[in-house]
Specification:
CATH topology of the domain at 192-379: Neutral Protease, domain 2
CATH class of the domain at 192-379: Mainly Alpha
Low-confidence stretches: 1-12, 396-405, 565-576, 611-623
Largest sheet: 8 strands, mixed
Radius of gyration: 44 Å
Amino acid sequence: MAVVTATAPARATSPYELRTDAVYRLDPAANEVVITIGVTFTNTSPDLAGSFSSFGNVPLSLQAGASSVTAGDRKGSLRVTLARQPSRTIATVALRTALRYRQSAAFTVTYRLADAANPQVRVRPSSLMLPVWGFGTISTVTVRLPVAYTARVLGGALTSTTQQDQVVLSSGPIRDPPHWSVLLVAARPTEYAAVNRRVPLSGGTVDLWVRSFDDDRAWGAATLDLAARALPALQSAVGLPYTGVGPLFITESLPSGIGPLAEPVSGAQDIAVAFDATPFTVLHQLAHLWIGTDFASERWIREGLASHLAGIAARQLEIPVAGRATAVAIDSDPAAIPLATWSPAGNTGGSSLATDAWAYAASWAFIDSLARSLGEDRLKLLVQRVAQGVSAYDTAPGGSPASAAATAQPIDARQLLDQIEEVVARPEGGSDGDQATSRLVEAAFRARVWPQEVRPLMDLRDRARAAYGALLAAAGDWGSPDTIRQAMETWRFEQGLPLMDQARRWLIDRDSFLDAARQSGLSTPDRLVMVWRTDGGGDLSRRELDAEAAFLQAYRAAGNRIDGLNPVERLGVLGGPEPRAVLASAAGLYAGGDLDGAAAAIDRAIALDAGAQGAGVVRLAAGAAALAVVAAVFLLGLRRLRRSFASIARS
């Protein structure tokens, strides 16, 4: 006797036709769903020579946990045999008589799905979740639930109408029931029960609140305990202090239907967790406290890092880690897309549920592979640099500390790759092993993160980064100019390459100038470094360098001209500054950045030197004249004295 299963799709050559009309009636007050399936089975297998086709029973594939399964036709009850499997229940209905070719039988199957009959079934006053299936080779599905509930359909399509006190969802004809399914989730306004605990973390104490549906208080208590354990473990895995402001709320919500890692969009301090979430999922969603939209602008970075960090914390807490698809399965999945094109969460015009489910797994696998290549310490350093707003292009050669931005900006895949290559190069200064790691990481980004059209930009990036490395080496501890660094950070390589050519030419002239300045004993001011960092060898830098070179030339010429003072010249500068002292003050003014004052000091030194001889002669002549006058006065006085003595003698 031939046997048929309800899981085979209908084809022109099918040996049977199994038409079904299924009605799901949700009864939250009774915590159950009653499903009624009207079945019409027709034998479409012609008799063969010497034999005949016949069907004596019809198996139907029902949801796992189906109970109270009965069957009957117009004459009465039919015998039903159940075979329970982890993912389904096979109900085999024995027909009243065997069906020959073109014969049909009609009967009804009724069964129940109680609350928690399987992990996907929830029937409670607060909320509902139900996997809705079609049956047979051609099917229709109708779902009836109380009008107080707001329903969301995930997967196949259902149209919605309202009939009296019920919401009625209808599928219309389903041509391939074995490949059609819907996850129905629904909720109605309900009260929440809240529990609270204070969790100490570095950076502050978290005021943790968990709000659960009033009829699901056990979920709230278990989630509070889990979150209180998870937060310190996650902070350790991330390596960053908790910076949240105000209470942290975890609120029980409906599932998204995408997969175990998906979460609804919520605020940074208000996390929505589905009532069917696994402990690992809770850890994943808590990881977004550190790895949120202010950390990364691209969804795959946030989700991949959150899963990776949750995995570290889960292993520490001995919590089972969610199962992951193999690399082969991820790469061969028809839903695969370049990771950077994964649409933001909540974007209704974006990716499909299948793409979302693939992208969660693929993002996690990609970050895990990065961690294996970099090592956990480097990955933690990368996360810290991003959170602190440190640029991947703001580090001088030798690994000197980079400066942090005033406000950290969310990174995208481009900046993530830049940061990876920076942390790879820092510890060992770019060893052969590090270069090999950088090449492997870049190849992975090319293959999995960006679409094909980005490849020319990646080639240009390779040229620009090589030029940037050479520029940093030439600049020394002066670092990179803002204009060039910003071009590299924003991947405007077509602008950065000409700027770097110009900057390298300027650095050659700078080095010649600095050598000459050192030979002349001059300390150069910060002006040249400052204009380099803002202008990077442009017009302002060129004018500044020319001005300082002109000062150096004038200073050296003045030094050659001003030699030691002879006695007459010393007499000329007596009581005032000497030319060399004034020239030395010019060097001090220059070192302090006062080029105008330094130039004026050179002029004064030259003028003093030029006038010292003449001033000495004048002073010498004036001194001689003064001595002559003194002598004449003395002689005149002497004569007068003699006359006075003579007059006294005669008297």
